[in-house]
Amino acid sequence: MTEDTSVIAPKAGWHIWLVGILALFWNAFGCFDFVMTATRNEAYLKPYPQEMLDYWFAMPWWVWAVWALGVFGGFFGAAALLLRSVWAVRLFALSLLGAVISLAIGIMATDAPKMEGAEFFPYVIIAIALVQLGYAWWQMKRGVLR
């Protein structure tokens, strides 16, 4: 008589698809914004005031790297979530770290030009990154992510 000791992973609910697809689109826009800015796409950057563009293009390479880690970490975290990989937690954590460091840089940069109405947006980004990380953590603890 043999005993089956294999563990059956819990089924992922329909919500993993909803959260994963929404996160993928949200983070894809962040990646698009980064690429369009980094490549200095004229049509994309046209609405921004020149002083904002000058500030962005004068940022040191490591600030760009933090931004890239944040947006691409979120994008690949969403893809990992859809693939039910435990890497989603690590990648969403990296994304949150990038967002928090970017916010800190923005707060400390006294010479940064301000865009009216955009002061709250970094906090929205952090809140969404926290939700993504929290959801992935929950799915990992449930055993859905492997």
From TrEMBL:
<keyword id="KW-0812">Transmembrane</keyword>
<feature type="transmembrane region" description="Helical">
    <location>
        <begin position="12"/>
        <end position="35"/>
    </location>
</feature>
<feature type="transmembrane region" description="Helical">
    <location>
        <begin position="120"/>
        <end position="138"/>
    </location>
</feature>
<protein>
    <submittedName>
        <fullName>Uncharacterized protein</fullName>
    </submittedName>
</protein>
<keyword id="KW-0472">Membrane</keyword>
<feature type="transmembrane region" description="Helical">
    <location>
        <begin position="55"/>
        <end position="82"/>
    </location>
</feature>
<keyword id="KW-1133">Transmembrane helix</keyword>
<feature type="transmembrane region" description="Helical">
    <location>
        <begin position="89"/>
        <end position="108"/>
    </location>
</feature>
